[in-house]
Amino acid sequence: MTMNQKISIPLFILAIGYLLATWLLPKYEYILIDADIFPFLLGGLLALFSVILFFSKDEEGAKIYIAKDDLKVIVPVVLLMLLYILLLEPVGFVITTVCFIFICSLLLGYKKHVTNGIVAVLFPVAFYFLFTRYLMIALPSGILPI
């Protein structure tokens, strides 16, 4: 079994689990585009790309190597993503996304803190109002009374 096949099987299982979890999301009656459309798209793409990866050829004896310096960045970013997922519903999209963008930019080495703060606030607020007011897609408001 090649390395691509070893990686593609868990990815395909993850995609199926993700699609099943997406199917269990609550449906809203009066919304044209429901909140499950984007997760269905992501899960479908992950399943498709894992099948493509399974049948693609790779070099014989290929091994995965990640440098220790890269791990010092990858691990905190992955942990931050997990924390983002856990806090998204109870805290809300805007606050969680602002914190995620700001902290992730710091972890990735971005040094302009004022610009980072402005971007971290403007994008989530703009996306929240775009999705909730104009596209009629529900996003978690959390603790903010928006």
UniProtKB/TrEMBL annotation:
Domain (DUF1468) ranges:
9-140
Q: What is this protein called?
A: Tripartite tricarboxylate transporter TctB family protein
Q: Which UniProt keywords apply?
A: Membrane, Transmembrane, Transmembrane helix
Recall the taxonomic lineage recorded for the source organism: Bacteria, Bacillati, Bacillota, Bacilli, Bacillales
Its domain of life?
Bacteria
Signal sequence, start to end: none
Transmembrane regions listed in the UniProt entry:
7-25, 37-55, 71-87, 93-110, 117-136
Q: Organism source for this protein?
A: Shouchella miscanthi
Q: What InterPro entries does the record point to?
A: DUF1468 (IPR009936)
